[in-house]
Design goal:
Elements (H helix, E strand, L loop, with lengths): L24 E6 L6 E6 L5 E7 L5 H11 L13 H8 L3 H13 L8 E2 L5 E7 H7 L5 E5 L5 E4 L2 E5 L8 E3 L11 E2 L3 E5 L13 E3 L2 E3 L9 H7 L14 E5 L7 H11 L1 H5 L5 E5 L13 H14 L4 E6 L18 H11 L6 E4 L1 E4 L5 H16 L3 E5 L31 E2 L7 E7 L4 E2 L6 E7 L5 H10 L13 E4 L2 E4 L3 E5 L2 E6 L1 H21 L9 H4 L7 E2 L28 E2 L1 H8 L1
Parallel strand pairs: 14-16, 14-17, 15-16, 17-19, 19-21, 21-25
Antiparallel strand pairs: 1-8, 2-6, 3-5, 3-9, 4-5, 6-7, 10-18, 11-27, 12-13, 18-20, 21-22, 23-24, 26-27, 28-29
Bound molecules: 2-acetamido-2-deoxy-beta-D-glucopyranose (NAG) (5 copies).
Length: about 600
């Protein structure tokens, strides 16, 4: 997907063109590794790193301004999404930056042919051995191992750049990124095998009635497509519009199995089973598509079955992004360390027509991702939003904490070198340009205790959240959790959906799966249905949702007011009237939302 701009750039830059007075290195970034990582050995000098260099996106502020205008339902430009080319123009680096970085690379013998450039030219990638990277960045790489998990990675805790390059380079990875691909967590909370025989609906106890909605009593202990349509007021809605689409991202070698999808459809979506409906598979950076039943993934199957089952017959795509193979330090095999969000974002941003609603059920503790990297990945999500894509992300399964039940592994301790106790928000949920989805359970609904919620330590609270979040903060008893969270931070989640007892088929067997891993694809299914409503009326798709959700669409949510999300040795926050840091604005009332957005 990288476009070579070789012909467009001056190739005659000689080594001497890089003035020596500017070669003095100055530290660009310095981190304390997260708890658990220790140095194992110096990095093998011939180990090849896939280095990514991020050049400043000179006009990102303008992109952000466009994004907020076109996502504000009261603005005259609402829905006027930007084209791929418009976005690329706005994030392109200044020519001075491109020139200075190209010169610097040439001074180290790196030729234009060796450099991959993103379509906008804001990311460069090159594969070079550790020995050369160490010289260029005036640093020393080591093999680090994680005490608990036994994983190994090649990283450094600081790197430097010639003084004159600081303004032309925003970040370089892999350097200080200790939140590795392998650490990226699927947000599944529990899996239990259940009876694969379908419960005939006739034998279910009578329906539960609440606010005029009839919900089958079985939905209190087993969530199916029918249950979600009942609970969220979408019974009988069948999408018909042309041009709609929905996508699921997969990582960690999770395989979405087509035979399991068919079994699921036979169980829960007969109309899809009748036509043998399936999804398109797209491999990102070498992601594989095993259809071997014993390699079917619980996460991937949950995601595709519910997102695609809810939105059938909307065209659906599963994106599998490859992970890096485990690095074996003592063998010293050359290995490529990919960074998951950027690999996926590169691909998606290069794609001429990304799916209009995309769900991601993976994440990590915000603090394990370097801030510079988180900001840049978040800027990539903004770019997709500007193009009319709605991005949903699970808010995490640790309540206000990191979900780690073992206090020995330093739950809720900051890795800023100060070892403070602090709530741990999740990333990418904490990016203000995605819609973070928390979890509920039962009917009538209440918050589920693991629902990830809280406040970013990196991202300021976006304006669209001001009213809702200030109301919530004002209601907190004075001094609550002082020092444990950032009152000015982007608050999560934005919304919620059911998150337990999802009836999923994996390897031909039925399971109950729970986690905000279930909430995000479920919410995304309804977003695809809302897009259908808009497209059918000739309106543009919803795109970046949050400014709409917190304003015009606020009344289209069921407010959840029972439950809390414990973590870090505290009871966490309470679900309250209005927005709260457990279930956000609440769960969707599709019927109401459809009226509000069409
Ligand atoms: C669903 O289960 C929850 C938890 O057991 C219970 O509080 C609630 O009353 C049940 N709902 C109904 C309608 O039975
Ligand atoms: C359904 O798809 C499967 C797998 O691709 C194929 O083997 C089967 O023949 C299809 N059945 C129908 C009815 O199209
Ligand atoms: C399917 O996967 C399992 C587990 O990885 C493996 O043992 C088995 O050999 C595979 N079967 C085929 C036909 O490849
Ligand atoms: C923080 O914890 C780490 C690991 O336990 C320890 O090495 C370090 O000295 C501590 N730092 C402070 C400032 O307490
Ligand atoms: C949550 O609600 C309980 C019971 O009303 C109250 O005692 C507690 O202070 C509340 N906690 C927070 C963080 O608001």
């Amino acid at each position: 997907m990288w476009v070579s701009l070789a012909s467009a750039l001056p190739l005659l830059v000689a080594v001497a063109a890089f003035p020596s007075k500017n070669r003095e290195h100055k530290v660009k970034e310095l981190v304390t590794p997260p708890p658990g990582w220790t140095i194992h050995a110096p990095a093998p000098s011939d180990h090849v790193l896939k280095l990514r260099i991020g050049l400043p996106q000179s006009n990102f502020a303008a992109l952000e301004a466009h994004l907020y205008e076109i996502s504000d339902p009261y603005h005259e430009r609402y829905g006027a999404h930007l084209s791929k080319e418009d976005v690329e123009e706005l994030v392109a680096p200044r020519p001075e930056s491109t020139g200075a970085v190209t010169e610097w690379l040439a001074s180290h013998g790196i030729r234009e042919d060796d450099i991959g450039r993103s379509p906008a030219g804001d990311w460069l990638t090159l594969r070079i051995p550790v020995a050369l990277v160490e010289k260029m960045l005036d640093t020393k790489y080591h093999v680090w191992t994680h005490m608990g998990r036994g994983e190994s990675i090649v990283r450094t805790t600081s790197y430097s750049l010639p003084q004159s390059l600081h303004e032309h380079i925003e970040l370089i990875q892999p350097t200080t990124l200790f939140g590795t691909f392998k650490k990226l967590k699927s947000t599944i909370h529990s899996i239990n095998e259940v009876d694969a025989i379908v419960q005939p609906q006739d034998f279910s106890p009578p329906g539960l009635e609440s606010a005029g909605v009839t919900v089958d009593a079985s939905c209190n202990s087993t969530i199916t497509i029918t249950c979600l349509k009942e609970i969220y007021n979408a019974v009988g809605y069948t999408p018909t519009a042309k041009g709609n689409s929905i996508g699921i991202t997969g990582y960690l070698g999770e395989n979405a199995n087509r035979a399991d999808l068919q079994t699921f459809y036979e169980d829960q979506v007969p109309a899809a089973a009748a036509v043998n409906s399936t999804f398109e598979f797209i491999s990102v950076a070498g992601g594989l598509d095993s259809q071997n039943a014993s390699e079917a993934g619980g996460e991937a199957n949950l995601d595709v079955q519910f997102a695609f089952g809810l939105s059938f017959p909307v065209p659906s795509t599963f994106f599998s992004t490859a992970g890096s193979p485990p690095f074996v330090p003592d063998i010293g095999t050359p290995e490529d360390t990919n960074e998951p969000y950027t690999d996926w974002l590169d691909f998606m941003l290069s794609h001429p027509s990304p799916p209009l609603a995309i769900s991601t059920s993976y994440g990590d503790d915000e603090q394990t991702v370097p801030e510079s990297f988180a900001r840049r990945a978040c800027a990539g999500f903004a770019q997709l939003g500007a193009r009319g894509v709605s991005l949903m992300v699970s808010s995490g399964d640790g309540g206000v904490g990191d979900g780690n039940p073992d206090p020995a592994t330093q739950q809720c301790i900051t890795n800023d070198g100060r070892n403070r106790t602090r709530f741990i928000p999740g990333f990418p949920a904490s990016c203000p340009f995605v819609t973070a989805v928390g979890g509920t359970v039962f009917f009538p609904e209440q918050a589920i205790d693991f629902s990830g919620g809280g406040f970013s330590n990196f991202f300021d609270r976006p304006r669209y959240q001001d009213d809702a979040v200030e109301d919530f903060l004002e209601k907190l008893p004075k001094g609550t959790y002082r020092g444990l969270f950032n009152r000015k931070g982007r608050a999560i989640p934005d919304v919620a959906a059911q998150s337990n007892f999802f009836r999923v088929f994996v390897g031909g067997r039925a399971f109950h799966i729970g986690g905000t891993s279930a909430s995000s694809p479920a919410f995304t299914g309804f977003v695809a249905l809302l897009n259908d409503g808009r497209l059918s009326k000739g309106l543009p798709p919803l795109g970046f949702l949050n400014p709409l959700l917190y304003s015009k669409a606020k009344s289209g949510f069921n407010d959840i007011t029972v439950g809390n999300n414990p973590g870090c040795g505290t009871p966490g926050f309470n679900a309250t009237k209005g927005w709260d840091a457990v279930t956000g604005l609440g769960t969707p009332d599709f019927g109401k939302l459809l009226e509000l957005v069409t």
